[in-house]
EF-hand domain-containing protein
Amino acid sequence: MDANSDGKLSVEEVEGPIKSDFSKIDADGDGFISKTELENAPKPNRQRPSGGK
């Protein structure tokens, strides 16, 4: 995802749930997501599809 290889992610470099929760993940508010911030980000709640089993 780090298109410019600067070691951090900008809002322009991310997609999907990360983009929609960018401000939550960017804990220090510097406008970038560091590797540490990404590792500490809350994990999305994923629901299993009901398969009827």
Summary: The chain has a mean pLDDT of 88. Residues 8-39 form one domain. The radius of gyration is 14 Å.
